[in-house]
Amino acid sequence: KYPAVTRDLALLADDDVLAGDIYNIIKKASGKILDSVTLFDVYKGSQIPEGKKSMAYSIVFRADDKTLTDEEINPVMNKILRSLEHQTGAKLR
Asked: At 25, is the secondary structure helix, strand, or coil?
C-alpha cells in the first residue's frame, strides 16, 4: 500500500569482514522499518587498498502505515553507519 524507500550503501571493509556480519548489523540497526537487505557487489582491485574490499548493499525500508520520509530514513542510515564502523571498522566508500 505504501511505497518502499531504497538506499544503496557502498562500504570499504577489511578482507576478513563477512557479508553475513554486515547484514546482521544492518538488520539490527534498522529496526522494524527494514524490508530487505541485498548484497549486490563485492569488488577488490586497483582502486581499493590492499587488504580491503568494497561491498555494496541495497537496503529497502517500508512502513505499514505511511510513506517514509528522508527525515525518518536519514537517522536510521546514520545509525547503520555508526554501528558498522564501531563493530567491523567498515566505512562509507
From this structure: helix
